[in-house]
């Protein structure tokens, strides 16, 4: 993987490299958990937005090859909308939250498939290269309805998932409002809306392409990790 | 050598300890209260350990099912969580338990990828003190400890000094303690870490490349208690530093 920082055009679309990812944000995923949300270890359904962080070592560019660890036959493809923050966002009101957005991009929040949502699972989610981003940031003015964008995931040119950015527990505006209640986001930070569930999977030797309407296509490959 | 980053008289400065407080690189000698203390280095990825002291695991064992043999419990933070020495941290009105956590912070100085424990210390640039607050009311069993507990604005205190690794011959031989309003409430020793620094660097660098400026917050020992608005909380580690923070309420933030 090339460790060179991502370079995106010009301000205000220069990314800070700080990526916060909503997880468990697809209505169907919570529904599929059923009564398990009330049983140990969870004991209650999620209240605040469930989030994970994709640190700088995870960030990869359009066209990169991502290593799949030997212990995992395949990775989950977390095809998600990436929301690029445009101005300092602290306690933004839900009704105007989209005013804090500079633009949108495509992100693959890759993960080794999780057996549980109890722990942050950093070893399974924050591996080198596990957050391809790109290919560009599209200005928010061109995306009036970020919660209704068609999403298609292809593996080796076969469509493995098709849907849209809707049916989220929290849409873009609500997510921004609830996250910035306790953590301030800065211009260039990325907040990921979260993928649909069940997520498709792909393994070493395969090509992954994620299309999001109006945003283009993010391409990368998966390769076997060198032992 | 110990260095700090401070704001003074309209500019950012590097500073070193002085008998009267601190000395800026330009020669000015100042009292500790005259400057604004920032986190003492340019912080990259922030990695934190939960349950890394055996006594703290016992302290929490009534509500947990972990044992010392489990995989290290690692979680991540963003830079907005940080605040420097002599800063303030908000305790939201109405919460029932907010507690400090005194921790040794290990700063990476050289890229580390698949580093063996035996070679790990060569990748450490130095150390500082961390007070990693948690608000237990917000704990949820989803991606626990969740960000609402552990990635709150200005609730991870870091500093005051960055201490070069060469000046800390054995980072596993340091006494650490917390004082709330002058009373010692937490007392421990870095020898009691379940996963020591080389083990943590080996574990983390197996799956993620650690880079210069990344910091590992190595967990806290037994003795965390609730703190309230107005409390002065001092976390200190022998030879590393004495980190002061004050708890404020919602009113200070216009809430």
Biggest sheet statistics of chain A: 7 strands, mixed
The termini of chain B sit apart by 41 Å
How large is the share of residues in beta strands of chain B? 35-45%
How much of the residues of chain A is beta strand, in percent? Answer: 25-35%
Do you know the CATH topology of chain A? Fumarylacetoacetate hydrolase, domain 2
Would you identify the CATH H-level superfamily of chain A? Answer: Fumarylacetoacetase-like, C-terminal domain
Descriptive overview:
The complex is a heterodimer of chains A (227) and B (255). Helix content of chain A is 8%, strand content 33%. Chain A has 227 residues and is mainly beta. Chain A has a single domain, classed as Fumarylacetoacetase-like, C-terminal domain (Fumarylacetoacetate hydrolase, domain 2, Alpha-Beta Complex). In chain A, the strands form 3 sheets. Chain A has a 7-stranded mixed β-sheet with strand order 2-1-11-6-7-8-3, covered by helices on one side. With 255 residues, chain B is mainly beta. Helices cover 10% and strands 39% of the residues of chain B. Chain B contains 4 helices and 19 strands. The A-B interface holds A 3, 18, 20, 23-24, 41-44, 46-53, 55-58, 69, 90, 117-123, 126-128, 182-186 and B 44-45, 47, 65, 71, 73-81, 113, 138, 140-148, 151-153, 207-211.
